[in-house]
Amino acid sequence: MNIDDLDLNLLSVFDRVRRERSITRAAESMGLSQPAISNALARLRALTHDRLFVRGSAGMVPTAYAERIAPAIGQALDAIRSTLQRDADFDAATSDRCFTLYVTDLGEAYFLPRLVARLSAAASGIRFRTMPTPRDHPAEALQAGTVDLAIGNLPDLRAGFYQQRLFRERYVCIVRDAHPFIGARITPRRFETAGHVLAAPSGTGHAAIERFLLEHGGRKAIAVEVQHFLAVPAIVAQTDLVGIVPTRIGRQALRDHPVRLVELPMPIPPFFVKQCWHARAHHDPGNRWLRRQFAELFVEGD
After folding, report:
1. Is residue 93 part of a domain?
2. Helix/strand/coil for 79
3. What pLDDT digit, counting tens, does each position of 20-52 carry?
4. 193 vs 103: CA distance, rounded Å
5. CB atoms < 10 A from the CB of 64, how many?
């Protein structure tokens, strides 16, 4: 018999008929019709050149050949089921899996402390590694499975991806407390003539800030360009530059730096922070568990 011609489903039918001693009961337990079971047995008989089962007073009786091969087939099917079941389970309490995340510096500061604190007792073996979202081809590592989850303002991850909205966010200006020209509000004219520090995290939708500055001030208005939002408060705290940051990082900065938050004179459209994952990871138990942690911790109403 050529093993390449063997359909694993035939062995499942063989094993079930042997256990049930009945084509009718085997069909019912497998959710198949009696003709489907009979057809499967006929195919397996043709491959093995043996009748496999004959009718007797106690039902379908295995032939000597069937009795000989039955233990090995049963063990093989049990091993396959066991392997697949282990792969399907995810026990966070005992797992030492390392999850890789695409996340900005802002995401690291906002998400990871609460996430790690939540898991420190119940899932102490779980580990995390973060990476910045690449500017080019951000989907490739998620498609390949080398990155598990992307968190943030990620408008480029659409086709082939699932996403869940965590919360709605908006932008705000940040200036130093003792700024000589900007008080409780900033006029459009003052905004356009001010110098700006621009945070431009790669691979995210925050490029909207740069487009906004180019429209209202031009390229010369951008005095400093940095990779990370967390650098902006420290810079504006010691200069007369104006920064634009998401409100959550602005509120954090109020606790750490001598700065103030001022409403933008012209609004930038708000954005949604989401968790995104590729279709290949949609049914992965570990990935599903991780997504549930983010949802339970960070999903907010609009």
Report:
1. no
2. helix
3. 889 998 888 788 889 999 999 999 998 889 999
4. 33
5. 7
